[in-house]
């Protein structure tokens, strides 16, 4: 192996030398621009290069060594080059030599690295545009995410040099490993396949990108969605808008106050900014000594196709998109797609910020093959035509050759991703990404028995030692748990559920699972009969919020008092907290007048009082109120006082006659009493429900059953069983059909001379034969049954005889054995008897049926008709 | 029924009878005791049962304003009367009586269930007001004409009907007929109408019903149209420019003008009047149309003005109310705390001090609320004044412009008058000279006796025309002005009313609070 590589190296060197020596066509020269100045001076660069060449460690270790790759099963296109590919390689070789001659101080291009079979292949042919069958992989973001998840990143053997090998995407996919070039080739293939105008880029990027170091990136999941600050549109003051009341405060004082506040704020801000800067300083990485030299490969998506409004970069390692002006990208050597190869002729002193991605501009981008479909964007058509004509005239041979030359078809097999692999995504189903102050772990579905898909751990410090919060995403859980949010600092846990939880739970916020503690539950109110939307609990209150109830109840708060200690310890279990107060609020019922529509009622159960507050009338500022004293009293004579005027204190906005009546008050109070009972009962039920939910939650946490979609044919046991059963039934059905289609005339027809038409005599004979045959069969069957019957009865007789003889000496076990045998034998005999009689009954019928059938048989009918 | 009638004297519905009935049917047990203590007012009664009382005349029911259900069955009532005040009535039972005609139900718009079973009714009518009627029982009566059923088509909610025991129910196709003509009916004669019967009936009477329906839709469309026209006229009237969109004014000018009509048959006059394009009538109508359009525009403007004004005022009031409510809520919270503190306190001097504090709080609330209200009053007054000025300006502009357009009309009339006079004098001269070719009707010829007569006649015609124009103008201006003053007055009075109401409310509230506090004081002292 090593010998081979060295050989290749030698060849390459030789080629380079050759290219340098070979005279370059003058028009090519004119096209090539002067070399750009990178951030480093030419001298240092050259020195470095020299050093690199000198250093040259004995064969850098390939991450995917050739030994591990099984090349035996690869198709032929991987192992040899077609003539066309050979031709292309020659063209590329030529190009490379011209290039190195014209730009001697630029690094050589990545044109035809070796593939896994050590065959040089042109980079463009390594891109195999493929449209994936998964709808999820239709858009660039999901594609990139898939590639970054699916492959494990392997750093380049030498961060400053181009790789010697570029494997096919199929191999990369099989081993799920690759360097940045493998990543971008695969991603590019997928993107071009789904219609994007995508290119593989060979260039230079920052250390973080090259090494997939996300520890300085803020995790995208931790970023909060920016709140869209909606500008409150200030309506222009209307013509008759009233003037505000005169402001009598001192303006001077206000100004002074404002000034003072501003100063304080400024000081505060300054302090904060300093703090922030200090933090930033700490976070900033040590300057990279190899800045600007690290080779990287990424993907460029140009605007135009698939409604991409603006060109952007995708880093295949992280699947993040960057603008083309991003600081991370420090320069571009070349880029290619499946059709052509372009070399950047623009200056990269300012990273990629000033690059113009107009690939049709031959001054900025030197192309390898002429006649691509890339339109010349900047230069006018006319100019182009002229220049090309000139080319033709001056340099017929080469241009003709190139012009007629198309990029050969890719040598790579179509990219295939099995559904299992697609679902598993990450190698062995698990992936961990370290972000700045955060760690993200991903799992494949059904890998964890509790449905855990993703966990994000956020830390307080950069070293990731003190956990701030943990977020866990779940999927396919039967309890519909979607997200678990655990705040380690406050100890607050929040569970989010998707619609479909048996108790319609949506969000559950709690600190501990013990009942009667601080907690809040939110519900999918449309799934609940009582339209409950939220229930909050503290140790001594329970507040419920309702929405859109037909009785207009919107709020209920129950206040509990301290538990009364009961002497009997046995009844501790059913010792509820005493209810002190129930407050209920109602929305306005438009069907009732405001004075009769209760807005709030408070049952002070301990004080035996009921307070009512009514809704406010349309143009009033005070609302009616009523207070009932529920206490039943006894007057001096010992009679019960039913109702006295001082048992009801009321304030009415507009005093009405009928409400003053004791009867009215009495009836209202009676009604309220019954409603109080009802409210207490509902509060009690709510308490029970909380207990039930908590119990259910605990059970769910313990068992964590996962649901399997009925469409998931692999995992769903039930559906598989069902399907198999169906298949079995189908199979049996098929067999039966085969049987019915059995031709009972076939054996007899076979006897006839083939190819001849049947005569009538033959037909009659055939029929008779068939019938007699059937008759024989019936008789045989009867005989068989008869024989079995006789045999069985004989055996029984023998046994009986034996029993009679040895009756005295037999042990009880033997006796039992004999008896059971007898009963079984009798049973068999009886069955045989029945069968025989049934056969006797049916045989003539069957015979007749066959005869009938034969008469109707189409093959014989014409002969037998006249006969009959 | 007859037996009852024979055995007992007919009774009168007097106060005693009613009181007894009310007391008997009133609440029971504890509530009953209370009711007895207090007595029940007739207007609080919701349901009243007066069956088997041998009542001859319905009377004395005017006090039962809120009655929902009234049972007067099995009496000897002969006329439906005295039910005018029971507008909330939903359920009325008048079965087993001696009623002969349906009457006196015109005010019972809420009635849903009416029973007139076993009476002597022979014709269904006078039920037009009962738009909510759902159940109608007319069994055992003397209805003999099938066409009575068509009358029932107007009750869209009618679901249950009983007509058995009437002469019509003897008819062969009675059931089919009812089903066909009342397709929304669910129960007939206490039985559910099955779908089959309904279908058969529909097919049987399809043609007649279709015809009926067609007629009904036609009348409805006509009514719609008439209503739309009326509405449009209303809109125009609100803009004070009704009839300006046609030649109505011009026609009215000539309607009472005998001389003008006579003169119209002079040669050349009809051309002057009618000939196209620059004749008198067309020009006149064009000006009228101008007035009309201008009037509509102005009306729109005024409407916008009023709407913005109302909106702003409402907004201001609402804002003020919110502030007031907020203040009250704040106060109530504090007050409640104070009161509970007082209740728990045992030291007399502390209690008194706290009570004084509470009293101060109430006064302060009163002051705050009153300040708010006064502030609002000031603000509103200013705005109202601005609005008043603007609306008066608008109206003034409108009047001015209309007047100038009317002046154009008058100019036209003057011009026409001159021309007419000229023609008339020419004709007179011709007649005098005997050169006139055409034959003139005799009554016209009588005008051409001498110059004075003809000038007088033409002048009279002119005067009438001018008078008409002037009248119309005056009418418009007076109406606009009166509308304007009315509007402004209303705004002022509304504002005053609002202010009074609010002040009263605030006073009432603070008084109540103070009273409560005083009571508390009392109670404490008693304790």
From TrEMBL, chain A:
Q: Name one GO cellular component term.
A: motile cilium
Where would one find coiled-coil regions in this protein? 251-286
The protein's UniProt keywords, in alphabetical order, are: Cell projection, Cilium, Coiled coil, Cytoplasm, Cytoskeleton, Differentiation, Flagellum, Spermatogenesis
Q: Where is this region: Disordered?
A: 1-30, 379-401
Query: Per the database record, which ranges form the CEP76/DRC7 peptidase-like domain?
Result: 295-366
Domain of life, source organism: Eukaryota
Q: What is this protein called?
A: Dynein regulatory complex subunit 7
Q: What is its main location?
A: cytoplasm
- One Pfam family here: DRC7_C
Gene Ontology terms describing biological process: cell differentiation; flagellated sperm motility; spermatogenesis
| Localisation | Cytoplasm, Cytoskeleton, Flagellum axoneme
The Dynein regulatory complex subunit 7 C-terminal domain is annotated at 756-864
Q: Which family does it belong to?
A: Belongs to the DRC7 family.
For this protein, the record's PANTHER family field holds: DYNEIN REGULATORY COMPLEX SUBUNIT 7 (PTHR35249)
Q: Which residues form the Dynein regulatory complex subunit 7 MORN domain?
A: 427-709
Composition skew (Basic and acidic residues), residue ranges: 19-30
Q: Which proteins does it associate with, and in what oligomeric form?
A: Component of the nexin-dynein regulatory complex (N-DRC). Interacts with TCTE1/DRC5. Interacts with DRC3 and GAS8/DRC4.
Q: Where is the composition biased (Acidic residues)?
A: 8-18, 380-394
From TrEMBL, chain B:
Q: Which domain of life is it from?
A: Eukaryota
Protein name (Swiss-Prot/TrEMBL) = Dynein regulatory complex subunit 3
Query: Which species is this record about?
Result: Orycteropus afer afer
């Amino acid at each position: 192996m090593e010998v081979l590589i060295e050989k290749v190296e030698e060849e390459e060197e030789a080629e380079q030398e050759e290219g340098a020596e070979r005279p370059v066509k003058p028009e090519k020269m004119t096209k090539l621009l002067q070399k750009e100045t990178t951030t480093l001076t030419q001298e240092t660069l050259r020195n470095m290069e020299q050093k690199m060449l000198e250093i040259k460690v004995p064969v850098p270790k390939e991450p995917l060594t050739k030994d591990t790759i099984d090349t035996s099963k690869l198709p032929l296109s991987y192992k040899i080059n077609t003539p066309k590919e050979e031709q292309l390689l020659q063209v590329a070789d030529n190009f490379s030599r011209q290039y190195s001659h014209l730009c001697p101080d630029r690094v050589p291009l990545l044109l035809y690295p070796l593939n896994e079979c050590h065959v040089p292949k042109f980079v463009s042919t390594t891109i195999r545009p493929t449209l994936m069958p998964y709808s999820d992989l239709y858009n660039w973001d999901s594609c990139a995410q898939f590639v970054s998840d699916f492959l494990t990143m392997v750093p380049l053997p030498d961060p400053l040099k181009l790789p010697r090998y570029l494997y096919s995407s199929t191999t990369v996919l099989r081993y799920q490993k690759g360097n940045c070039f493998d990543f971008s080739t695969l991603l590019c293939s997928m993107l071009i396949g789904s219609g994007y105008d995508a290119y593989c880029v060979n260039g230079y990027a920052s250390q973080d990108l090259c090494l997939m170091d996300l520890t300085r990136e803020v995790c995208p999941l931790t970023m909060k969605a920016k709140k869209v600050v909606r500008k409150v549109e200030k309506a222009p003051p209307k013509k008759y808008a009233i003037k505000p009341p005169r402001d009598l405060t001192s303006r001077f004082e206000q100004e002074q106050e404002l000034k003072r506040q501003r100063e304080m704020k400024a000081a505060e801000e300054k302090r904060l900014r300093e703090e922030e800067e200090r933090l930033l300083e700490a976070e900033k990485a040590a300057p990279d000594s190899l800045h600007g030299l690290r080779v990287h490969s990424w993907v460029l998506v140009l605007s135009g196709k698939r409604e991409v409004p603006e060109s952007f970069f995708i880093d295949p390692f992280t699947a993040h998109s960057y603008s083309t002006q991003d600081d991370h990208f420090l320069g571009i050597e070349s880029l290619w797609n499946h059709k052509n190869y372009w070399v950047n002729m623009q200056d990269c002193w300012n990273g990629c910020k000033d690059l113009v991605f107009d690939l049709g501009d031959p001054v900025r981008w030197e192309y390898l093959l002429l006649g691509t479909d890339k339109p010349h964007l900047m230069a006018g058509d006319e100019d182009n035509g002229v220049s090309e004509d000139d080319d033709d005239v001056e340099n017929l041979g080469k241009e003709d050759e190139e012009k007629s030359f198309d990029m050969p078809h890719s040598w790579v097999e179509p990219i295939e991703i099995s559904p299992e692999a697609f679902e598993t995504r990450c190698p062995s189903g698990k992936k961990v990404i370290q972000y700045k102050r955060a760690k993200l772990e991903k799992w494949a579905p059904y890998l964890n028995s509790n449905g855990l898909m993703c966990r994000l751990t956020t830390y307080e410090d950069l070293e990731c030692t003190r956990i701030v919060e943990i977020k866990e995403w779940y999927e396919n859980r039967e309890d519909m748990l979607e997200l678990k949010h655990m705040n380690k600092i406050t100890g607050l846990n929040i569970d989010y559920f998707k619609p479909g939880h048996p108790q319609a739970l949506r969000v559950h916020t709690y600190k501990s699972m013990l009942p009667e503690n601080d907690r809040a539950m939110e519900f999918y109110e449309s799934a609940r009969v009582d339209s409950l939307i939220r229930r909050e609990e503290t140790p001594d209150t329970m507040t419920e919020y309702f929405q859109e109830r037909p009785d207009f109840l919107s709020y209920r708060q129950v206040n509990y008092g301290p538990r009364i200690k009961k002497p009997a310890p046995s009844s501790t279990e059913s010792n509820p907290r005493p209810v002190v107060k129930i407050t209920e609020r109602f929305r306005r019922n438009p069907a009732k007048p405001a004075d009769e529509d209760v807005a709030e009622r408070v049952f002070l159960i301990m004080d035996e009082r009921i307070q009512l507050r009514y809704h406010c009338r349309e143009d009033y500022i005070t609302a009616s109120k009523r207070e009932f004293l529920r206490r039943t009293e006894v007057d001096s004579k010992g009679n019960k006082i039913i109702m006295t005027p001082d048992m009801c204190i009321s304030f009415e906005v507009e005093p009405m006659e009928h409400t003053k009546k004791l009867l009215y008050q009495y009836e209202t109070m009676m009604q309220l009493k019954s409603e109080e009972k009802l409210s207490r009962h509902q509060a009690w039920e709510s308490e029970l429900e909380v207990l039930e939910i908590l119990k259910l939650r605990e059970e769910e946490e313990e068992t964590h059953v996962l649901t399997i979609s009925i469409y998931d044919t692999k995992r769903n046991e039930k559906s598989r069983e069902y399907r198999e059963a169906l298949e079995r039934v189908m199979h049996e059905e098929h067999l039966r059909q085969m049987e019915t289609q059995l031709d009972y005339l076939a054996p007899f027809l076979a006897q006839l001379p083939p190819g001849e038409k049947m005569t009538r005599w033959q037909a009659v004979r055939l029929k008779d034969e068939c019938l007699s045959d059937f008759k024989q069969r019936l008789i045989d069957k009867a005989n068989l049954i008869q024989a079995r019957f006789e045999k069985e009865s004989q055996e029984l007789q023998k046994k009986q005889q034996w029993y009679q003889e040895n009756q005295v000496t037999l042990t009880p076990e033997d006796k039992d054995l004999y008896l059971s045998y007898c009963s079984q034998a009798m049973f068999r005999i009886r069955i045989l008897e029945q069968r025989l009689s049934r056969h006797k009954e049916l045989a003539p019928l069957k015979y007749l049926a066959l005869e009938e059938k034969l008469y109707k048989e189409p093959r014989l009918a014409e002969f037998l008709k006249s006969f009959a | 029924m007859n037996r009852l009638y024979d055995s007992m004297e007919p009774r009168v519905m007097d106060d005693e009878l009613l009181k007894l009935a009310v007391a008997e049917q009133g609440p029971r047990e504890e509530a009953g005791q209370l009711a007895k203590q207090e007595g029940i007012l007739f207007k609080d009664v919701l349901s009243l049962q007066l069956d088997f009382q041998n009542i001859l005349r319905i009377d004395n029911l005017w006090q039962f304003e809120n009655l929902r259900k009234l049972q007067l069955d099995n009496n000897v009532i002969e006329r439906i009367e005295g039910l005018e005040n029971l507008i909330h009535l939903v359920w009325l039972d008048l079965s087993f009586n001696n009623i002969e005609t349906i009457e006196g139900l015109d005010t019972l718009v809420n009635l849903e269930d009416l029973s007139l079973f076993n009476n002597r009714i022979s014709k269904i009518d006078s039920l037009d007001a009962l738009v909510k009627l759902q159940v109608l029982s007319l069994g055992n009566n003397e209805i003999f004409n099938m066409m009575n059923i068509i009358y029932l088509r107007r009750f869209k909610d009618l679901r249950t009907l009983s007509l058995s025991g009437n002469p019509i129910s003897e008819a062969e196709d009675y059931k089919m007929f009812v089903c066909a003509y009342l397709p929304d009916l669910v129960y007939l004669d206490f039985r559910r109408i099955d779908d089959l019967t309904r279908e058969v009936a529909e097919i049987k009477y399809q043609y007649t019903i279709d015809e009926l329906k067609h007629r009904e839709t036609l009348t409805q469309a006509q009514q719609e149209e008439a209503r739309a026209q009326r509405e449009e006229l209303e809109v125009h009237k609100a803009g004070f420019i009704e009839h300006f969109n046609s030649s109505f004014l011009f026609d009215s000018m000539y309607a009472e003008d005998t001389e003008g009509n006579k003169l119209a048959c002079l040669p050349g006059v009809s051309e002057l009047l009618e000939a196209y394009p620059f004749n008198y009538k067309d020009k006149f109508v064009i000006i009228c149309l101008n007035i009309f359009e201008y009037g509509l525009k102005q009306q729109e403007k005024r409407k916008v003005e009023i709407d913005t004004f109302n909106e702003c005022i409402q907004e201001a009031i609402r804002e003020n109310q919110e502030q007031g409510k907020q203040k009250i809520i704040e106060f109530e919270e504090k007050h409640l705390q104070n009161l509970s503190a007082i209740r728990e306190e045992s030291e007399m001097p502390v209690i008194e001090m706290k009570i004084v504090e509470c009293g101060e709080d109430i006064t302060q609330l009163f002051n705050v609320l009153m300040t708010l209200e006064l502030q609002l009053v000031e603000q509103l007054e200013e705005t109202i004044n601005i609005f008043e000025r603007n609306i008066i300006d608008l109206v003034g502009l409108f009047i001015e412009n209309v007047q100038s357009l009317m002046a154009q009309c008058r100019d036209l009339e003057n011009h026409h008058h001159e021309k007419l006079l000229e023609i008339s004098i020419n004709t007179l001269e011709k007649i005098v000279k005997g050169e006139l070719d055409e034959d003139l009707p005799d009554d016209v010829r009588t005008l051409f006796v001498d110059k004075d007569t003809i000038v007088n006649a033409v002048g009279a015609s002119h005067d009438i025309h001018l008078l008409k124009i002037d009248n119309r103008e005056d009418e418009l201006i007076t109406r606009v002005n009166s509308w304007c003053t009315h509007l402004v007055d209303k705004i002022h009075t509304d504002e005053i009313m609002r202010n009074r109401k609010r002040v009263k409310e605030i006073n009432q509230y603070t008084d109540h609070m103070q009273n409560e506090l005083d009571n508390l004081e009392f109670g404490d002292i008693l304790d």
